[in-house]
Fold VIT family protein.
Amino acid sequence: MSDPQAHHEPHGNGMGARLNWLRAAVLGANDGVVSTAGLVVGVAGATDDRGTLLTAGLAGLLAGSMSMAAGEYVSVSTQRDSEKAALATEKRELTEMPEAELAELTGLLEGKGLSHEVAREAAVQLTERDALRAHAEVELGIDPDDLTNPWHAAGASFLAFTVGALLPLLAIVLPPQSLRLLVTVLSVLAALALTGWWSARLGDAAVVPALLRNMGGGALAMAVTYAAGELLGAAGV
């Protein structure tokens, strides 16, 4: 007999929460690596001055981390406001027309494959236990006790971007001048391979496509910005 405790497939709100955290963390890290690498490699195409590279990298790190955090906070706050509004509407409808809401819940359960009799009995029991929670979870897909948290998302994006941005920043300023570009490119590609593997494994997705997307996008970004820096440097801008 198989051990039920050995089955760890994620379901429901737990999976949704994990994917939301994963999305913010992976996007933040990838953006930190790629945008900062593109910035410092572009500047390196125009100048080899270590102070200029450090200044550009730090400015990109700070601006990017704050931008990611603010954007994630606004986005998730909007989602949270929508969830609260939907719950308030549902609560009002349960008070004003309980029978219609019971019939609606029955229909939703029928839509999941239950017979009318079983769906009706389940709807009655769920309503008696916690009507708002039943409608929130079945109708809206919301856990009333676990709404999205904008501060968590903003913090994850800020930290992930900062950690990601530190790698190309250190790679461009620490090595000798002759090795800066090579070390930076190789470090960035390695980091993007790691974040691609990490996101694929945690999200139970295919690893190879994630690696190719991350590494290909990063390589393209660095090539474009370096070429732009070379052109501007040659033009004396």
Q: What stands out?
A: The first helix runs from residue 12 to 46. The two ends are 73 Å apart (CA to CA). DSSP finds seven helices and no strands in the chain.
